[in-house]
Amino acid sequence: MALKVLCDRILQEGRCLEGGILKVDRFVNHQMDPYLMKQVAIEFIRRFADIKVNKILTIEASGIAPAVMLGYLMELPVVYVKKIVPSTIECFYHTKVHSFTNDFLYDVVIDKEYLTADDHVLFIDDFLAYGNAGKGIIDLCSQAGATIEGMGFIIEKGFQKGREVLQQEGISRIESLAIIESLDNSQIKIMDD
Fold first, then answer.
1. What are the tens digits of pLDDT across the range 84-133?
2. How many helices (H) and strands (E) in the chain?
3. Cβ(127)–Cβ(162) under 8 Å?
């Protein structure tokens, strides 16, 4: 079941841009609505109630707000994968992630201290499009020997088939709070439950 308050905001305030981009920067990934992020986190808690995790993982930058809110409510640490290697990180796992929105290949890293074989992680992000960020997380977790217990996305663009890509990579538990069926003709169509 889609999160109704989220779907309402997408329909009221979301905008379609060229190339299949859904702009939700009024409430998700530029200006954030903390109350909506709390509702998103509560819904993720409900959907992932049956799995055991010890860490929330996200990727810089738009996944940080929902991940932090979720980590706060679940009382778990949140680690975000960085797009720039800070000089303070000496030992890290590294992979490359293609950004659909910016059409750019990013180097992303995570300090080896914060992702280990003992970790059972829940990955949280704002969008699932082609599955590129998720594939990067899969690679980093594989390098560390960490287990991905699930992946949660605020918005999934179902027509871009990222879910299938992640399932082919072995991720069986994927939860999206709103699934966009189409952005054709600059009209947002959300998949019915």
1. 777 888 899 999 998 877 788 989 999 999 999 999 999 999 999 999 99
2. 5, 10
3. no
Question: Which pLDDT does position 1 carry in this prediction?
Answer: 57
Cα–Cα distance measured from residue 85 to residue 64, given in angstroms and rounded to the nearest whole number: 17
Q: Tell the burial category of 49 from Cβ atoms under 10 Å away from its Cβ (0-12, 13-18, 19+).
A: exposed
- Residue 40 host element (H or E): helix 34-47
Strands (E), 20-161: 21-23, 55-59, 78-81, 92-99, 104-111, 120-128, 147-157
- The one-letter amino acid code at 15 reads R
Alpha helices in 75-189 (DSSP H): 132-144, 162-168
Distance between start and end Cα atoms, the chain: 5
Find the length of the chain. Answer: 193
Cβ distance 28 to 126 under 8 Å?
A: yes
Q: Among 104, 163, 176, 101, which Cα is nearest to 135's?
A: 163
Residue type, 65: A
Task: List pLDDT tens digits, range 132-191.
Answer: 999 999 999 999 999 999 999 999 999 999 999 999 999 999 999 999 999 998 899 999
What is the helix (H) or strand (E) element at residue 179, kind and residue range? strand 174-182
